[in-house]
Amino acid sequence: MRGLDSSRTAAVLRFIAALSIDIGDLDDLEDTTADGLSTLTEYNSNDNWRFNQDFDIIVSGLLEQTDYPYIYCYAEDDETDGIGSAPNTMIFDSAALSGADNVYTIWQGTGTVQTLDESPPEFTTLMVKDPSDQNDRLVVTFALNEPGTAYCRVTRSDSGEADLRINRILSANYYASVSAANIQNTITIDQLESRDTKSLYEASQYDVYCWAMDAAVNTQGLPRPNYMTQDYVDTPVGTTLAHAQTSPSGGKTLNVWVKDLTPPTMIFVSTEALSEDTIQITLQLNEPGTVWCMPTLPATDATYMDSADITSANFKDKITGASGPVTFLQYVPLAYTNVDVAVDRVVRDDSTAATLLSRESNYNIFCFAADDWDFEATGAAQQSINFQTANVGAANEVLWSEVSSFSSVVGQVITLDLTPPTIQINSVSTTETTITVNLELSETGTAWCQAVRHGFNVPTILEILDSNFTTEYIHYTPTTVPVDVQILGYDRPRNWDNTYMTPLVLGTYYDIYCYADDDLCDGCKVTNGVSFSYVSTSANQLKVRTLDLTPPEMRFIAAESIAHDQIIITLQVDEGAKVWCAAWSSDPVLSATAQDYEVRIKAEAGTCSDNLGNQCGTFWVYDMDDIVDVINADDGVASRAEYEATNWKYLRDVDIIVSGLTEETDYPYIYCYAEDDELTPNKMIFDSAATGPSNVHTMWTEIGTIQTLDETPPSFTKLAITDPTDVISVTFQLNEAGTAYCRTTLSISGETTLLINQILSANFYAEVAGPGVDGQIDITALESTDAQGLYEGHQYDVYCWAKDSAVDTHGRARPNYMTQTYLETDVGSNFLTAPNGGRTRYVWLKDLTPPTMIFVSAEALTDSKLQITLQLDEPGTVWCQPAMPTADPLLDVNDLDASNYITKIKTANTVFFQYVHEPYRNVDVEVDYIDDDAGTASSLLLSESPYNIYCFAEDDWSFQTTLSVDKSPNWLAANVPTPNMTVGNGNEVSFIAVDAFMASVGQVITLDLTPPTINPITLSSDETNINVTVSLDETGTVWCQAVRKDFNPPTILEILDTNYYSHYSGSDTTVEITGYDKPINYEPNYERPLVLGTDYDVYCYATDDLCIGCRVTNGVTFSTVVLTKDTIRTKDYTVPKMRFVAAESIARDKILVTLQVDEGAMVWCAAWSADPAFTDSTDAETERDADQEPAKQLRRWPRSSKDLLGLPVTALQDADCDNPSLAHGDFATSAERRWAAGAAIEWEIVSFAATPPGLAVRRKGQLDRIFTGQRSG
């Protein structure tokens, strides 16, 4: 190996062992299968490299963090048609000829690449002072084994976090750097994250996690640091302080203390007297610790400790009870958590004893606190390896100033008075409306009393207070003076009148309950009231009854007839009673003599009942007194539940029904009477000269006259409709005054009935004042609010319904309605005198309108057939006939007029027609013959000729109504004809409409349907173009497209999109294909170029020119396009071009080189840390051949079959390549190929010599350049 030492030989061997990289292009699909690519799927496989795309070559087995300035890459293509049937290969020229096909040029672009540093750093020192010097931060001292940056973060040891992820350590943003190995630096951590506002907590243990990265860079000089692993971060520093100082095993230090230097703060929450001898102080500390409290007398006292006895000199001993008989303390395990200290004794001045606090007395409170820092730090179950007991210090205690200030904030606290008064009731008296309670209390205070219905729930204390029947009581010793509490009502409901009281009810049993409280004592917050149990269970519960000396009062609520033989009277009574009512149509002449009114009314009890069917006199109206009374114990009510279950209650509506009456009759004499349930009943009076709620005569005047109801519905006596009819008009009569309503529905709608509410919503109605009077209802739509009227030429079912004009007791309309069954019954044949019901089916609404012809489209179907698509707006028949646009022996536009248009179109020699079964549905009429003028013969339409189209239509009204299966009883044949029926059986369109329709259609031209024929094509090509010579059998346009050989044929649209075309007008035309396709991008004129040295299939498509009147040209079919296929290969005279993309080290022993080549090729790369000393291309080839001779992958410079200025290189090769004196004569072709790859550079041969071997060439317009056997530039 010339120019290489043994070390470089080893590098070459490492390179060669990697073998070569095979880069494929699309041409590989068509050449031999040796390259492993024969299908597009194989080419597109992710396992293959492709031309003009990045491919990666990895050179491995290198040394870490070492410069490699000599990286060479080489390529040769896969052509076999160059000079000597060899590939086109890259050159090596260090003197000149720089370019994409020069190995030396690619080496210059690659430059020097250094392999990476991939070893992470390690700590050589990692210490934290424990406990810390300050109470809000920790200081970490560290060193690394190489330059780098360390990051640290803390987390509370009691947080439950078993580790910290690296990203969280980084987010804390506490870091420091070192510029060399084993240099110490510090990181101060005063918060969980540097952006936090809260410092670290004193008297807390923290776990410290540290992580580092080195200062390594990548090939581009950009940072590519190596990071400590998560496992290293999670590994403890060690087990002794020595490990932290010189040999850390990891980055984790557990349980480091932040020192506590601050005394606790006492936070006052509240104080309260818990009893007559105990005071409770509630407070908090801002950290764990212990709190002591001690009560003192506010004023100077010679016997017991007062406030002046506690001073700055003795406050700790006095408060903690260090020398006294009692101590009041609480441990505070958690900061900011309430603790309660209860004190119940005051200490003597001599500290020999203590006595209970006094009732209703003032006391001052002093408190003292200390934290538990020293116990907490030294007694911790877990300590860091850095912990030093000498750093701990003593516990922190509050100062005298805070003790004094805290006592001032608490102030004086007063013990309680907790004893309520007792109540003694002496007597209770009543009237009909009041209850008076005589009582006295055991101390000065206030008494309240309330009356509730006997047996009802005991009132709550708040309810007794809300009733507000109260009297103040003043206690005198030894003589007492009773007071009266007068109860004037039941309760005081909240409404607009604050003075209103619900009155007591006469003759009613009540339970009396009383409540009392004492006056507010000095310093107390609330008075002492008797308990609810005292109110409800003591002897204070009394049962009393109010008096009843009054007859029942009756209130009239309403009266009305509820049926044709019944009247209901609604009334109320104000107490428990029985009630009777009676009704007469004439005056019964009642009187008060011998209770005549009572006897007469009770005598009608057989026709009097409540609305539950109970006869009057057999049921009670109950009041609350019935639960507990003994006067009428057989009323069946002895409990609140039984009372609530009764039907009628006092002061609530009671319904009395008087029955057995005559329909639609006035009853002006309706009397009602009641008597209460006392042992001697109190009865209503009868006095025509007086008024009042206890007077039967007064109730009669209030009730007045009531008429029983009319409850019989009306019926039709006439219901007639003209059929067929221009407008549906209903003539009707009723058997009484009333209103009739009618509605229609299409007979074909599928509705078998209409509900009454549907008929009413249509709102077609008329009113008659009485029987025998005609009414008329005209129905113009389904509903009167519809904009759309009824459809002519359709059958409708007509439903009619009526209501009478009856009213109720109050004169309000209470009509009687025809039933749904009557409505659904057919009228029958006697519809003029005695209809059976309200339904008339199958009434025809006459069709008066000719159909409208609606033009949709017209088109030529073939070269002799036209199609007219149209619609009618109703069922019917349509006829069409073609006509010549100008005068002609055949039927033309001048031959039709208003007198003959029906005959010419409808009864022509050849008739074209369609039945139209549904309106607004397209129908197609096809015409292919035209009549002569006489209408006796027809001839086929001509190709590419214009025609006018006449169409005529009539509806099927007469057939439709006459032949209908179902008809109404009103139907008459004489009603069928219309004004628009002349010669047929339907309404006919006019000549004006026929002529206008013809004008809308316009002229329609028959088609030319034959595409051109494409004759066999001829192909020629160069490197970038394919020329197609083609001819057609008629004038037209030809498009051609080239696709890769054996790819799918392009679609017709794809051929048109490439837009390589030429117009044919009688002689051969040439289509020049300059690209593969035209992708859509920002540049509309961009073409994807053809690829040199590639096989292509060529396909062509053609259309004729657009004929006159035609809409589209005739194009050949896809199957014809496929038959035009021919194959050609573009030329390839160009050596492969290599593009350097990037080079970088990807590992400590690997370099990645990213390249591109512009065609299918084989590629090799190698790297040396020292110069391999290539002197020329022969040297490079020799070096490579020596290391891999069997593969023959490094060849001498390639040969090309391209001509040099008209002189074929193959001729030179044949004549001179085997001549020993011209051993290097073929180098000229490689040099020519070197620049010929760029289309902008051209060369011409000047001379060729055998001795010395060399070739003189000249770039056009420049000086000559000589290529010799030494292969100089």
TrEMBL record:
<feature type="region of interest" description="Disordered">
    <location>
        <begin position="1176"/>
        <end position="1195"/>
    </location>
</feature>
<feature type="compositionally biased region" description="Basic and acidic residues">
    <location>
        <begin position="1181"/>
        <end position="1192"/>
    </location>
</feature>
<protein>
    <recommendedName>
        <fullName>Ig-like domain-containing protein</fullName>
    </recommendedName>
</protein>
